[in-house]
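Q: My labmate handed me this sequence with no annotations at all. I'd like to see what the chain might look like in three dimensions before we decide whether it's worth expressing. Could you predict it?
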Amino acid sequence: MSDDPVVNHEPQDAAEAAVPFIPVIIPLAGAVMMFLLAFIAVHMA
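A: Here is what I predict for the chain of 45 residues:
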């Protein structure tokens, strides 16, 4: 039973676990960055 090829118990590293979320994370990070930069520009003006 321990040699069952269907069951895969290899540990996943953090990068491989985050790959499916990249299309969501990058635009959210961009939106947060734009908001922060706009906030700083308005605050300094």
